[in-house]
Amino acid sequence: MDIVSTSFTHLYGTHHTWLLGLLRRRLNHRWDAADLAHDAFIRLLNRPLTETDHVRQRSYLATIARGLCIDHWRRRQLEKAWLDSLALRPQDTQPSPEQRAIIVETLYEVDAMLARLPTNVSDAFLLAQLHGLTYKQIAEHLGVGERMVKKYMAQALLHCAILEAELDGLLVQ
């Protein structure tokens, strides 16, 4: 075993039970807590912790866990909203469980992409795509000119194209 795997094994053994307990209290769900604890340590493998102080290690793990919880809750909200809207559709138009999983994952990726965009860009995109507003109406709503709305939409659509390429496996991060 090399030094990195030995230190990771020690870190995992020292903090896993504590982190699992922290996540169980936050999520109130045993299996979700186990999944997120696993994800936290996977992130730690990708960005090794150089800190040797026990308290700082836990602080770092708690920070990772907090971000994972926020992502988890956001994902659940998106999934619930989509399933609620899906429940209004006739049974014969319902997607298969596999299609549902793909759609939820895509919604999550689009939401994450929109969250990375400036507010006006994501707002313009949502107003156009979800509410069907014209560029003129969006400009009035955002208090900008139509030309700026065109720039916002171009920026959002570029990010959508990048996201589509990433989801299709054409881009490597």
TrEMBL record:
A Pfam family the protein falls into: Sigma70_r4_2
Top-level taxon of origin: Bacteria
Domain RNA polymerase sigma-70 region: 11-77
Keywords: Sigma factor, Transcription, Transcription regulation
Gene Ontology molecular functions: DNA binding; sigma factor activity
Keyword Amino-acid biosynthesis: no
Transferase is among the record's keywords: no
Gene3D superfamilies the record matches: 1.10.1740.10, Winged helix-like DNA-binding domain superfamily/Winged helix DNA-binding domain
Ranges where the RNA polymerase sigma factor 70 region 4 type domain occurs: 109-160
Any one GO biological process: DNA-templated transcription initiation
Family under the similarity heading: Belongs to the sigma-70 factor family. ECF subfamily.
Name listed for the protein in its UniProt record: Sigma-70 family RNA polymerase sigma factor
UniProt source species: Pseudomonas nabeulensis
